[in-house]
Amino acid sequence: MLHLFDGWQQVAERVRAAGSVALFLDFDGTLAVFAARPEDARLGHETRNALARLAIDPRMHVSIVSGRRRADIQTRVGLARVQYLGLHGWENGSTPRLRPEVQSSLDGARRWLAARVQAMPGIRIEDKGAGFSVHYRGAPDGSVSEARSAVGVAVASAVKLRAIPGGLSWEILPRDIGDKGTAVRHQLSLLPGHALAMYAGDDRTDEPAFAALPDGITVRVGRRALTRAQFQLRDPGEVRRFLERLRGAF
Question: Domains in the chain, please, with CATH?
């Protein structure tokens, strides 16, 4: 996997040749450094400025695709002319509703897990309405092992749900909710003409988006790992530099 800046000449040529660019970005671990608690994550001032300069360009279509709730990510980024896709694209500005039986299954699994993780140091549950996360950042190994087993039991007993490993967490989502690959395909279908798709993300939940964009430019953020992405950036600091370079590539 090539570092993005080592292949930048090729990337910049594709950007210049494109009539427009559809830029998709994850938030935690990509735009913003991971925080010990999800509620403490912040977008850096310089990164926000770089995003803002891209978003006002009529040739750029910028979307943030996150496992967070749409309202949460919109508040943290706080820019107009950006599309905010929450819960892996499920929340996209419309008001989707889960089927009653699915919501009931989700609520039951969340209550069951919440009762069990109370005795597991460092494990916490984040309710997202149409899904929830089980976080284990900073938890001791014993707690992580117990929590992993509990998540497996909860999902195995609720056939309408699935667990997705994320950034030091498990996302528990209804099977009715698609993945980030579904989200980016849908967004691209709404754009006029043929936009060059670019996607940057840092964990397993971004892999379906990489796979959905074989003709795009895909970037895995973080340490080297088995991935469908073509390029790598090391951290959110390099993502900021990428955004600044992208503005100059047109």
Answer: 2-94+178-249 (3.40.50.1000), 100-174 (3.30.70.1020)
